[in-house]
């Protein structure tokens, strides 16, 4: 996904740990508006992310409950704790990244949020992204919609662009643990670049040529 953006306004859905290219876009933006009132779409990156394990790229999903059925809006999407999803995510991330250079710097903070038993998905996503923004030095203004935004003409509307993580391409590769086995695996969650590059991830994404 390649958007021309310089101090632009972004309208996006709630996201958990989106591909790194999304955060590269945010680093070139001035305002992020999160739509909390869209009707929940199926099978998007709003509640799932992809990591690079030792065998293959792996999708991790936070199970959700639609409190109002198919008409449920984002702010009313609840997290389903009938399965121990947070422990599954923790074990998957450890398997994939325990040997990465910066896993110990970030992993416990992420797991702590997974274990807080946030009721709503948007609360979990906001908490995790607060960590990510801090680690990447994302300093844009954040807003949350008071109602559904039908037409967004003052910036870039990204709400329809998170069906497939493959759409979010970084131009340049970076160090990954299993590069010799798989080559560079693009489109992975921002967790991947943080665990592998640490503080250098912010500089890498800031300079990524897709948005300059």
What would you say this structure looks like, in words?
The strands form three sheets. Strands 7-2-1-8 form a four-stranded parallel sheet, with no helix packed on it. It has a two-stranded antiparallel ribbon with strand order 3-4. A two-stranded antiparallel sheet has the order 5-6. It is built from seven helices and eight strands, in the order E-H-E-E-E-E-E-H-H-H-E-E-H-H-H. The relative contact order is 0.25. The model has no long low-confidence stretch (mean pLDDT 93). It has one domain. The protein is an alpha/beta fold and 212 residues long.
Which class best fits the helix and strand makeup? Answer: alpha/beta
Q: For this entry, what is the oligomeric state of its chains?
A: single chain
Gross geometry = globular
Radius of gyration: 16 Å
Write the layout of secondary structure elements.
Blueprint: E1 8-13, H1 20-26, E2 29-35, E3 48-52, E4 57-61, E5 64-66, E6 77-79, H2 85-97, H3 103-114, H4 121-136, E7 141-144, E8 156-157, H5 179-182, H6 190-197, H7 200-207
Helix pairs in contact: 1-7, 2-3, 3-4
């Amino acid at each position: 996904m390649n958007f021309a953006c310089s101090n632009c306004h972004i309208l996006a859905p709630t996201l958990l740990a989106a591909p790194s290219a999304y955060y590269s876009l945010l680093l070139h933006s001035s305002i992020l508006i999160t739509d909390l009132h869209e009707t929940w779409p199926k099978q998007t990156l709003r509640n799932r992310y992809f990591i690079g394990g030792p065998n293959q790229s792996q999708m991790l999903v936070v199970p959700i409950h639609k409190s109002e059925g198919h008409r449920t809006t984002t702010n009313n999407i609840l997290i389903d704790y009938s399965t121990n999803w947070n422990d599954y995510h923790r074990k998957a991330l450890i398997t994939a990244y325990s040997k990465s250079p910066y896993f110990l710097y970030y992993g416990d903070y992420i797991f702590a949020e997974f274990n807080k038993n946030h009721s709503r998905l948007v609360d979990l996503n906001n908490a995790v992204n607060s960590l990510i923004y801090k680690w990447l030095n994302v300093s844009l203004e954040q807003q949350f919609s008071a109602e559904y935004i039908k037409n967004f003409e003052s910036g870039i509307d990204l709400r329809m662009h998170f069906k497939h993580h493959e759409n979010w391409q970084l131009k340049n590769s970076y160090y990954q643990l299993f590069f010799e086995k798989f080559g560079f695996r693009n489109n992975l969650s921002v967790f991947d670049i943080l665990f592998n590059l640490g503080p250098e991830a912010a500089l890498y994404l800031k300079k990524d040529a897709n948005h300059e």
